[in-house]
C-alpha cells in the first residue's frame, strides 16, 4: 500500500510553490526597506525554551507541542512558533550588543491542533521581530510595514484589531479583578479554564468553548485597568496608526494564545477565511528576553500564516512567467540549440528543451500537455536562416523569427497578452 502524508501536513505542489516563493520574496525585500535582515533558526529546540516563553498554561504548551526525547533522553520540541527561537539566538549570540536588532524569518512551525481549513499541524510563518526598542513608534511602524506588505500583494479587506495587555505594574491588579469576576461564573466555565483560573485567568477570555464565551460576557476590560505609562503607550500607538492612515478596532478581549505579551497586541483578520480568520498576529513582549536570561530588552513582532495568506490571495493573484518549449529537429541543430536556449534562460525566460527525438507531431502534443504558451522549432530550414519557427499555442499562429532579438520578442509576446 502506498504511504500517505501525516494528517495536517501538506505538500506545497509546483502550481502553488511559485506563489509561495513570491509571497516570501516580496516580504523579505519589503522588510529589508525597513531595516530587517533574515535570521535562520533551527526547527528543533529544547522543550524548556517553549515552556518558559510561550507559557506552561497555554494551549500550545499544554496540548499542541510535538515533543520527543532525543537519543540521550533530553526533551526536544518541533518549534510551534519562531519568536522563542529568535530570542534564544539573540541572547546566545549576543546580538544585544547592537542598539536594535530587526530580524525576520520564514519556515515551518508545528502544532498538534485539529486540522481544518486554514489550520494545519505543519504550517508556515513569515515573522519579524524588533528587539531593543520600547517606543510606541516601533509598534506602529511595524504594523505599517505589515499593512504595506499586504497592499503590495494585493490583499484586500483585512481588519486590524489591537489591544493593550498592560505590563507587570498594572496587569496583576487586572488579573485580580478578572479572577473575582470569573469566580462568580466558575460553574459555567470549561474544565480547562477552571483549572487555570488561579494561575492564568486571562486564558478564559481566549477560550473558544461556548460556555466560556458566554460566561465572560461583561468581564472587566484590561484597557480600563492600564497604568499611566501603558495608557500613554497605547494612545501613541493609536495616533501613529492614524497618521499612517490605517483603520483599526480596539478589541479589549483579545489576549492572544501566548503568554509573553505585554502592552500592544494585535491580530489581522480576513473575511475571506472561515473560522480560522487571523492571517497575522503579534505584539510587544518587553520582558521575554530578560525572562530567558538576557538583558532587559523591549521587543515587538509579528507572524503571518502563509497558508492563510495564500488562501486570502487565491490562485489568480500570481501568474508565473509561462514556460516555452524548444524543439531541435535533427542532429545538426545541437550546437545552435545550446546557444539559443542558454540566451533565453539568461534573459530570464523559462524554457524546457525537448530531447525526445520523436515525430514533430508527438513533440508538439507533449509541449501542449506541458502547458507551453510558445514553442520554438529549429530544423534544417530554420538553421539555414538563423531563425526559429515561433508557434503561439494559444493563438494557433506561427512565424519565422531571427535568433538575433528572439529573447526580447518572446518576452514582449509573453507579457502583451
Ligand atoms: P500566533 O498567533 O500563534 O502567533 O500565530 C501567528 C499566525 O500564524 C496566526 O495568525 C495564523 O495566521 C498562523 N497560524 C497559527 N497557527 C496555525 C495553524 N495551526 N495552521 C495554520 N496557520 C497557523 C505567533 O506565533 C507569534 N510568534 C507571533 C509573534 C511574533 N508575536 C511576536 N512576534
Task: Explain the overall architecture.
The protein is α+β, with helices and mostly antiparallel strands. It folds into 2 domains: 16-170 and 226-317, 2-Layer Sandwich (BirA Bifunctional Protein, domain 2), CATH 3.30.930.10; 325-410, Rossmann fold (3-Layer(aba) Sandwich), CATH 3.40.50. The chain is built from 16 helices and 16 strands. The strands form 3 sheets. It has an 8-stranded mixed β-sheet, with helices on both faces. Strands 13-12-14-15-16 form a 5-stranded mixed β-sheet, with helices on both faces. Helix 1 (14-33) runs antiparallel to helix 5 (136-153). The longest helix is centred in the first third of the chain and has 20 residues, at 14-33. The structure holds histidyl-adenosine monophosphate. Histidyl-adenosine monophosphate is lined by residues 81-83, 111, 113, 118-120, 123, 125, 127, 129, 257-258, 278-283, 285, 301-303, 305, 307-308. Residues 81-83, 111, 113, 118-120, 123, 125, 127, 129, 257-258, 278-283, 285, 301-303, 305, 307-308 line the site of histidyl-adenosine monophosphate.
Characteristics of this structure?
Rossmann fold, BirA Bifunctional Protein, domain 2, 21% strand, 2 domains, binds histidyl-adenosine monophosphate, 417 residues, 8-stranded mixed β-sheet, alpha+beta
How would you briefly describe this protein structure?
The chain is α+β, with helices and mostly antiparallel strands. The protein is 38% helix and 21% strand.
Topology:
Blueprint: H1 14-33, E1 37-38, E2 44-46, H2 47-54, H3 59-64, E3 66-69, E4 75-78, H4 83-92, E5 101-110, E6 122-131, H5 136-153, E7 158-164, H6 171-184, H7 191-196, H8 203-206, H9 210-215, H10 228-244, E8 249-250, E9 264-270, E10 278-284, H11 288-291, E11 299-305, H12 306-313, E12 324-328, H13 334-346, E13 351-353, H14 360-369, E14 374-378, H15 380-385, E15 387-392, E16 397-402, H16 406-415
Helix pairs in contact: 1-5, 5-10
